[in-house]
């Protein structure tokens, strides 16, 4: 039971706004010590996992390209492009991107798009420009940018599980195998489709709603 | 074979240049932080677990010292290259896409498990070359600009890796088993809706705590999914597993613990509220969680 103290540390630490990285390492020590691990073992476990997950941080290699393009007017060009498109609204642009993200993720192409690759350089400035034209304020710009990032994540999460060889499908197959339940990846991926459709409908409705609020003189 | 070794070499060199540029501008905390990330990328496999752990402690020390500085403001750029500026931006996803498909047939040369990351790295290198050829950028220019972006992201850059490592400690300490027992204990015997709610909400809540549905699934499968839903109530294992995992994903949308999906984009977009992306996701996540519960209940009852 004491091992749950680490969860209390995480929740409390985030809530009280201590430095998040300090909260994480303190939680690791509290949890490990409660489970009777010695401190060196805790440091080693943490270090090993950190080394194994470097691929998460590797995506920042795109920053030099994105940074240069931004200083050479990438976002300005994205805005100009949207200004030339009649009928382009923030909601419609993001709905199109949601569909694109879900379909490519369902084909296993999860890293083709993402916050660094597509949202910051292309999707967010385009949506922002459209929102501006719809009469959005500076506060709306923040909300539209956040919505662009949210759309990217929703599209990824509720598309990728349709692909057969994605990590989560393999994990489910492996865990169930441990109980003597044998499943083909196809049986699992087919059951991701209803939720994928629901995600598109729910998030798409919210994007349609965003357009309505923008054109009514600013989102609340 | 080409795989993560190439990916980590390129990432390591990029961070090494960030570190040198920071040191040149006398931003020493930033320089040290990026130097440690460089060391992790280039030498991580040779360091050993304890040394990697000490490296992590040093990263946290620098971040918590509060000495890392944000980027200097830059003037908004003019639209001077017209559509040409899109070419390097689009070449990255395009090469990632084509490479992922093409590398499936080059399994002796390229590690098939890392095809997309290798392709993304290749796309980045091609885009860098195009920046020079097409936009006449000086070699150092992209890195100066990129250093501005990474400075604005700051220590949040390593938070996803830190949380994943915390998950490893949780797993070793047996946190999952304890949570699973607690959840299993609250279900009224024989209640289908009770079991479905405990399983789906348990997936979402445990994912919120751990920041990762992958960590939640084995726990909830062991506590409720397999013994109660599948064995006792005869539910189809494929539905229980697939929909349960998606209920967990709804939890991922709502938690700062999933920093790479939720906090990192807010930092990357320079949003004032670092929880803005989570706020934008919750109104999608909650109805979708309800949908998953109803779907699961409908397929069992």
UniProtKB/TrEMBL annotation, chain A:
Membrane-spanning intervals of the chain: 52-69, 162-182, 188-210
- One Pfam family cited in the UniProt record for this chain: DUF969
Q: Which keywords does the record carry? A: Membrane, Transmembrane, Transmembrane helix
Asked whether the UniProt record includes Membrane among its keywords, one would answer yes
Q: What is the name of the protein in this document? A: Membrane protein
From TrEMBL, chain B:
Query: Where does the chain cross the membrane?
Result: 6-23, 50-66, 86-103, 115-135, 155-179, 185-206, 213-233, 239-264, 276-300
Would the keyword Oxidoreductase turn up in this protein's UniProt record?
no
Q: Which domain of life is it from?
A: Bacteria
Q: Which InterPro entries match?
A: DUF979 (IPR009323)
Keywords for this entry? Membrane, Transmembrane, Transmembrane helix
Record's protein name: Membrane protein
């Amino acid at each position: 039971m004491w091992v749950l103290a680490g969860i209390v540390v995480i929740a409390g630490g985030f809530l009280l706004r201590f430095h998040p990285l300090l909260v994480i390492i303190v939680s690791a020590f509290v949890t490990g010590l409660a489970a009777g691990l010695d401190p060196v073992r805790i440091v080693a476990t943490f270090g090993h996992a950190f080394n194994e997950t470097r691929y998460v941080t590797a995506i920042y290699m795109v920053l030099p390209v994105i940074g240069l393009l931004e200083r050479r007017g990438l976002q300005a060009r994205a805005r100009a492009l949207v200004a030339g498109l009649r009928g382009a609204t923030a909601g419609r642009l993001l709905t199109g991107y949601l569909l694109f993200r879900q379909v490519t993720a369902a084909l296993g192409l999860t890293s083709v798009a993402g916050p660094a690759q597509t949202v910051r350089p292309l999707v967010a400035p385009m949506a922002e420009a459209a929102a501006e034209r719809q009469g959005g304020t500076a506060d709306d710009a923040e909300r539209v940018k956040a919505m662009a990032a949210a759309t990217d994540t929703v599209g990824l999460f509720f598309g990728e599980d349709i692909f057969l060889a994605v990590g989560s499908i393999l994990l489910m197959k492996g865990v169930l195998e441990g109980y003597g339940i044998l499943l083909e990846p196809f049986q699992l991926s087919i059951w991701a489709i209803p939720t994928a459709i629901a995600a598109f409908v729910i998030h798409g409705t919210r994007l349609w709603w965003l357009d309505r609020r923008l054109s009514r003189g600013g989102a609340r | 074979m080409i795989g993560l070794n190439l990916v980590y070499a390129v990432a390591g060199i990029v961070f090494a240049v960030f570190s040198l540029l920071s040191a040149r501008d006398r931003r020493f905390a930033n320089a040290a932080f990026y130097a440690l990330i460089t060391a992790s990328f280039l030498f991580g496999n040779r360091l050993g677990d304890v040394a990697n752990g000490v490296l992590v402690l040093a990263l946290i020390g620098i971040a918590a010292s509060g000495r890392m500085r944000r980027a200097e403001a830059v003037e908004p750029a003019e639209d001077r290259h017209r559509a040409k500026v899109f070419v390097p931006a689009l070449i990255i996803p395009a090469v990632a896409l084509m490479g992922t498909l093409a590398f499936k047939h080059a399994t002796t040369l390229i590690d098939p498990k890392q095809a997309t990351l290798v392709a993304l790295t290749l796309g980045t290198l091609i885009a860098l070359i195009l920046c020079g050829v097409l936009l006449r950028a000086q070699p150092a220019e992209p890195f100066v600009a990129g250093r501005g972006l990474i400075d604005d992201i700051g220590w949040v850059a390593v938070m996803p890796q830190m949380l994943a490592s915390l998950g490893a400690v949780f797993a070793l300490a047996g946190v999952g088993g304890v949570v699973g027992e607690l959840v299993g204990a609250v279900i009224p015997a024989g209640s289908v809706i009770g079991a479905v709610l405990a399983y789906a909400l348990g997936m979402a809540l445990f994912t919120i705590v751990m920041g990762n549905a992958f960590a939640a699934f084995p726990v909830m499968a062991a506590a409720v999914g397999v013994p109660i839903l599948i064995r006792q109530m005869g539910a189809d294992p494929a539905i229980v597993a697939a929909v349960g995992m998606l209920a967990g994903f709804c939890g991922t949308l709502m938690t700062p613990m999933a920093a790479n999906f939720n906090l990192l984009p807010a930092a990357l977009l320079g949003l004032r509220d670092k929880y803005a992306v989570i706020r934008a996701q919750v109104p999608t996540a909650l109805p979708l969680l309800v949908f998953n519960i109803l779907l699961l209940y409908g397929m069992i009852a």
